[in-house]
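Exercise 7 asks you to align residues with tokens for two separate proteins.
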Amino acid sequence: MADTLGIGIVGVGFVGEYHAADVSKLEGQKLVAIAEPNEALREKVKSQFSVPHAYASWEDLVQDGSVDVVYICTPNDLHLPITEAAMDAGKDVICEKPIARSAAEGRAMIEKSRQTGRKLFIAFNQRFRPSHQKTKQMLDEGAIGRPFLAMSTFIGNEFERMSDPKNWKGTLEKSGGGVLIDNGTHLIDCLNWWFGEAESVVSRCRRLVISTQNKEEDTSLVAIEYKCGVLAELAITFGARYSTWPKGYIGAAIRTEI
């Protein structure tokens, strides 16, 4: 592998374009290719970041010899096939969360990584927030005593995309579910990182605000019991048209706000 990593991004919509801008600023890597079926969007990002290769299909990108790492920024139904094809072509993979639409698809991606020896990284970026890393450090050091209760909340506004029957967001076919598999995975990942393996999980997922019939839940409540003795509660929604971020607390005698 060359000293400079060649990065290829599949899907340059909102998230993909955002990452294209970041990759273009970093040393040791170069954005060498993008794949995007929307021609106008593809040409815009190609011109904006001087991308050498711009493909209409992801199949062409994963065969590009200048690409070392494929960054998947697509709807969730494409995570598995792109990962498998990229790794078979000798590429490492960074994939937007969630890993896939189902546990079975996620396990298949992990198995492909093991079979080919290629790296698979799921972009749970919340682990890299300084406040979350500080929380991890305090928990590991015992700085807040013995944690026993965690409450995590995401109050989000996806009313427009969830209400659009043509948008993939929240559809079972392309997304694999609604708010829980989407933003809920960020919360669960942080809780698992902090507290370890879960003993039991109970959840309720309902479409309470969105009336579009081909969409899954816009609101979910989750209770997790961890083997370490912590009980965690998650309250998440895509149905808040006026989004806010309530404060979350971890610990007993000492309060951590994130």
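Second protein for Exercise 7:
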Amino acid sequence: MVLNLITNVNEAIGEKSGVISFGSGVMHADVAYLNSSLICDQLKRGRYVYPEVSGTGCGMDAVTSEKDIRSFLYNQIYRSGLGMSAVLDIVRGHHGALRMYSEPGEGATFNMLLQALESVAVVSDTVDDVTHADDARFGEGVILVVDDEETIREIATMMLGDMGFGTLTAIDGRDAVDVYRQHAADIVAVLLDMTMPKMDGSECFRELRRINPGVKVVLSSGYNEEEATSRFTDKGLAGFLQKPYSPDRLREIMAGILT
């Protein structure tokens, strides 16, 4: 979502030199403030987090409706219009609001307001509960994380690190085969994306099995399990993890195949 905004602000600057800035914060928004936003589906007052993107583009006159901004961004500033349209739809899907500040020739600043989760504190005086928390770091050995999206690799690596695992990463199936061949003795499981360039998950899985018939592979995909695993039926997958997944779900899968 932020990347879409940055892309569009960059296109608004065009071939001239310009500046793009990014920030974030937390604020308390009242109903009047929320109702003055471009998108506002009866949001409640409360705490909101807001990523903010600014750019020195051509700017625009006051915008009074979502229809106006979609039309303006499509026809005048942003040649494709698709990125900003996607931002509007994503913000609505997350029950958020979008605010824009702009003047002709002065560029624009976009604020996306997303409702903040209330923090939940868990306090325990028992030894048993403290021990249970420590047990969250149950992992031993190395997990090979294979995904062509850098963000997903980084998030999975952090989650697995919190569980106590070491990690190696690969950017596609071909890279994964090379990494596994070099470190097979240390790798206890592979978290494998299904759709990748050069070599997809299905072909990569076959190559990994040639190196080690007993390799434990967890397939990861945005598709549902039935659709994603149709090409892996009876081929020895250790598990399936549907994207996006939580740390608890990843931990549950890894605990199931390794403990």
